[in-house]
Design brief:
The chain has 216 residues and is mainly α. 75% of the residues lie in helices and 0% in strands. The protein has eleven helices and no strands. Helix 1 packs across helix 2 and helix 2 crosses helix 3. The longest helix is centred in the first third of the chain and has 29 residues.
């Protein structure tokens, strides 16, 4: 029992250090590490882009690099994501969210696919030119493909709720079609292998998605 005149001791709550300043600092550190990694990749190649060399170039401790990215594959994912999901991508996503017309939403899907694949070309060339092994790069791409498949169900659900999905097409089949047609391989085959312009690819993809998914 606390004696008279003395305050009972109450355990202090731990402070949660999650201030905007701390978040901004963490973001700046992440960006500095990624920028240093890209420069090393250009200069030393994938083999020379070690976690230790990245830490030195970024001016941080090696454990900091591991804590943020975990591995070289994590750094590669960051470099690709920076290219793919920048301001242009964010603007297109906002456009989708502000559009209610089903045909226009699928036009945005084609535009987004083109934007992502156009943007990633320079980084992929850098990675392959720097000697990154194809199986390692494939692992990074496979992770992103799984995420893309998970996210695209929102588009299909919107078409279902709007009652415009093509007759006889169930939810999972429609999702598979959207995922397949907006895939990287079709872009590579048409644009890189067959020499289509990105504009021609986008127009074809828009029309193909609309015919494949919407009621006539």
């Amino acid at each position: 029992m606390a004696t008279a005149g003395k305050r009972a001791l109450v355990p202090k709550k731990k402070r949660v250090y999650d201030s905007p300043a701390r978040q901004r600092q963490a973001g700046e550190t992440r960006g500095r590490i990624a920028a240093a990694a890209r420069k090393l990749l250009e200069r030393e190649g994938y083999a020379g882009m070690t976690m230790a060399s990245v830490a030195r170039a970024a001016g941080v401790a090696v454990p900091t690099v591991y804590a943020i990215f975990r591995s070289k594959k994590g750094i590669v994912s960051e470099l690709l994501d920076e290219a793919r999901f920048g301001q242009d991508y964010q603007a297109l996503v906002r456009g989708v969210q502000e559009t209610s017309a089903p045909r226009e939403r699928l036009a945005f899907a084609a535009r987004i696919a083109r934007q992502i694949y156009d943007a990633e070309v320079p980084v992929e060339r850098l990675l392959r030119g720097a000697g990154m092994l194809a199986p390692e790069l494939a692992k990074v791409e496979n992770e992103r493909e799984c995420h893309r498949y998970q996210m695209q169900v929102q588009q299909i659900d919107y078409l279902l709720q709007a009652g415009v999905l093509r007759r006889g097409l169930d939810r999972e089949s429609a999702r598979d079609i959207l995922w397949c047609l907006t895939g990287r391989e079709i872009y590579r085959m048409l644009v890189r292998d067959r020499g289509w312009t990105p504009e021609k690819y986008e127009d074809w993809l828009k029309e193909t998605l609309q015919r494949a998914l919407l009621k006539i």
